[in-house]
Design goal:
By secondary structure, this protein is of the alpha/beta class. The chain has eleven helices and 13 strands. The strands form three sheets. It has a seven-stranded mixed β-sheet with strand order 1-7-6-5-4-2-3, sandwiched between helices. The chain is globular.
């Protein structure tokens, strides 16, 4: 560390240098990310509350009240009034909390000490972290021909140690939506915790219901669903880090609570202690500012661009893996593997990603991707066919 202070000008010149190495959403070249540039209203609200620490909510009562109101706003699009939960860092932390709650509840209510969780092979890698950190055996259910969880495989995997079943609403790789109603029926009949990971789909599926898209019910309207993950820092235009974990009632938070005697609250249920308070008002602000109509327009625009991209890719002779359900387009070159195509596209400046199940180029059509960016991308794809 430097012995003497340096000037602010010199310091920020150095920071500018490093920031110049970062990709920028505004360039329209980031095609493989589920995050996007946050709304200006969300940024303004974030910086207004950036000193708040929700790990000690008694000191920041207003920020805590906003967190509760934000959860209620989110609950209103997920078919639940007054959900229990928290605004957290993102889908990984939310999924960890859900699995921890399921494990603790199963241990206290059923005496299960060697818990297992059933997830689809399409599940986010955060469940592997949960398995490792929480000592839960991870059982991967098969996928059907549409890359959704195979219901029979789930039923066959259940045993006396099963503490949770996981369904996905908007898979990370392809944007597929599992059959949550059927999973709910299984969870109810077997008295097993059903968690829905809607980190990606949670802020787009509800806003496409009134359009031509026909989605199955994926939320708390299914009585077997006990918890849900949803990420405002994806399609809701909130700043990173902004995820949310919602539970049906406080009992799941109680199952995770530990004593925190030196704080203004005596029990804490979150994984982290000190918690950024600013993401709650940032999420609240952008949701209030956008309203249902704003998110409906955002969702429709995303799907219009998605269909434009999918049709363009198909017309060039590339192979679509599936017809897009949400704003993700996955495809392959007819002659060589996805990794090679990704490397070639990077030479043109495009930052794509590859899915693993199945192997394919994966494009997420986020808000920062404009139609002219897609046109330019298709021109470069044409050069490689």
């Amino acid at each position: 560390m430097n012995q003497k202070p340096i000037s602010e000008e010199e310091l920020f010149k150095e920071l500018d240098y490093y920031q110049s190495m970062d990709c920028k959403y505004s360039d329209g070249k980031i095609l493989g990310s589920m995050c996007t540039e946050p709304h200006s209203v969300a940024k303004k609200a974030f910086f207004k509350f950036f000193e708040s620490n929700l790990g000690d909510p008694g000191l920041f009562k207003g920020t805590k009240l906003i967190e509760d109101k934000t959860l209620n706003l989110i609950g209103s699009i997920l078919s639940i009034d007054n959900p229990a939960g928290h605004i957290v860092t993102g889908g990984t932390e939310a999924n960890l909390m859900a699995m921890r709650a399921a494990k603790n509840m199963a241990r206290s209510e059923k005496g299960i000490s060697n818990g297992e969780i059933i997830v689809p092979k399409s599940a986010h890698f955060s469940f592997k972290k949960a398995s490792d950190m929480l000592d839960l055996k991870l059982i991967e259910a098969d996928l059907d021909e549409n890359f959704c969880i195979d219901i029979d495989s789930v039923s066959d995997s259940i045993n006396e140690n099963t503490v949770a079943i996981v369904g996905i609403a908007g898979t990370t790789e392809l944007g597929m939506i599992d059959n949550i109603p059927k999973l709910s029926d299984i969870a109810l009949s077997e008295d097993i915790h059903l968690h829905v990971d809607a980190a990606f789909g949670g802020f787009i599926i509800p806003f496409l219901k009134d359009s031509s898209f026909n989605f199955p019910s994926f939320d708390f309207s299914n009585l077997g669903v006990r918890s849900m993950t949803i990420d405002p820092h994806k399609m809701a235009l909130a700043p990173i880090p902004a995820g949310a974990i919602l539970f049906r009632d406080d009992s799941y938070l109680d199952a995770m609570s530990v004593d925190s005697p030196y704080l203004t609250v005596k029990h804490q249920s979150t994984i982290v202690g000190t918690r950024v308070g600013a993401t709650s008002p940032a999420t609240y602000a952008v949701m209030r500012y956008m309203g249902i109509e704003g998110y409906q327009n955002l969702a429709k625009d995303a799907m219009d661009k998605t269909m434009f991209l999918a049709e363009g890719v198909r017309n060039l002779g590339y192979d679509l893996v599936v017809e897009p359900k949400l704003n993700i387009v996955a495809f392959n070159h007819p002659d060589f593997e996805a990794e090679k195509l990704a490397n070639l596209l990077e030479e043109y400046g495009w930052r794509v990603s590859c899915s693993s199940c199945p192997k394919a180029i994966r494009i997420i059509v986020m808000n920062h991707l404009k139609k002219n960016h897609i046109v330019n991308f298709l021109k470069d794809l044409e050069k490689l066919i």
